Amino acid sequence: MAEGDAELADLYRDVLLDYYRSRAHKGKLEPHDVRGHGVSPICGDEIEITATRQGDRLDKLRFDGHGCVISQASSAMMAEAVEGKSVPEVLKLVEAFGDFMVRRGPMDQMPAELEETKALEGVRKFPARVKCAMLSWNVLRLGLQQGAAEYQELGDREGT
Amino acid sequence: MGFDPKAIRKDFPILNRKIRGKALVYLDNAATSQKPSSVIDLEKSFYETNNANIHRGVHLLSQESTEMMDLSREKVAKFIGAASAHEIVFTRNATEALNLVAHSWGRKFLKEGDEIVLTEMEHHSNLVPWQLAAKAKGATLKFIPVTPEGTIELEAARGLIGPKTKLVAFTAMSNALGTINPVPELLAMAKKHGATTLVDASQWTPHLKTDVAAWDCDFLVFSSHKMLGPTGIGVLWGKRKLLESMDPFMGGGDMIQEVWLDRSTWNEVPYKFEAGTPNIAGAIAFGAAVDYLNKLGMEAVRRHELELTEAALRVVEAEGQIALYGPRDPQHRGGVISFNVADIHPHDVGQVFDSEGIAIRAGHHCCQPLMRKLKIGGTARASFYVYNTLEDVSAFGRGLRKVKDFFKVPAEAKHG
Hints:
Chain A is α+β, with helices and mostly antiparallel strands. Chain A has helices at 3-11, 14-21, 69-82, 87-101, 127-146; strands at residues 34-40, 45-54, 57-66, 148-152.
């Protein structure tokens, strides 16, 4: 395989493309208990996350908006990972995902819930794309901490 | 002697680079151009043999540096048809040149109730400085609308430009879409009402013959790095009387005539606007870039880019499922192809092109209001220059097909 194709295949792994095409968690929940809205002006990406709660747990989560393969796949993986988890557990997962993606932590220490997100490993080699993977996670974190939140990606910051 | 891109390519060392195992196909020229050996060599030899600070030095090196920079200023003046090298102000880039005008002209001459007319397709650099100036002076911004095809609505412009219009500032060629604007028509409308005029020629001057005397505008800005020259050097051209009537931009060395503890008097133009040690090496090497373009001839440059643009438009047409932005008539566009592939995000498009060693740009191209108007988040953009060939256009087509294959764009998919 040519060098460029190998890097491309490593970035856009099949599992990631499957999540990108999946409609399972797309849409908007009405009514909802949690809402987060985020934009990344650099990319022109926009995402709205709505979720319902059952007791202290997130029940259902949906995301709406538009973005690249990385941001859409990452959002779908996140939805799958956090449904059914308590708010403190979700915040821990967001933190752990940031450790993996931004701080390039070791993969073997990732919580089991984030197993699928390991397919985003190739993104770490493309610094310009890390913020794409982080967008929905940052939006959800703020949404949970503040009930309803507006998140704006600034400049080239890679988020948390 | 004919225009021979194969021979031209030999003058650009970077074109020998392999990107991800493939030969570089550089199609990001609207962002910045590559540099020929003559430019790189002159900048290097300046530092190796002539380097000193300009002006006031009595030693030989300072005299040489000063003369070399003066010579470059004259070359630039001649290249754009300016009456005198005194009308060429060297800045860091076109953005700084625009800020200079917004500050030194705008803060002095704009009054409350004045109107500044821009277009909806301006680069942020010809928008944000005017937002700041308008806010500071109580002036109002008006915008000539852009059609869905990405051209100026001339009739609307006629209605917007009137007796209250103090300034009409617009791009000669859109960096995001490649649209060539009706410069003489817009200037005529502005002059009819006595408005001052500014042309952002950042995308024009590298690709088409510039003649400020024929246009008879008041200000024109562009930058060296998009026209084979170094980064860090840009140009503000202005009519001499107008430049002389303006206040300084930044204070410091070189821009003054006499300094007392409580006051100063200003140097003559252009030095009044060139505080501090300028990018001497960059300005000098910029002269070599101008020489290079003169050798090719700007008419030949335009003809070559027209050929590439027509070929690229045919590729887009044949490919299908590509949303193309900007005018369809190549006579009305520069060598810029702005597009989206089905519903694939421009960054994903750019990433696939990169895997083939093809450099294109993806995003909002510093034109967020224009993207909003066209109801898109961004576009992918391929842009040509003198060293690009029809083989590069074929590579562009190969990139498009790879994007569709890689992301399995279904044949019946509609583009947005």
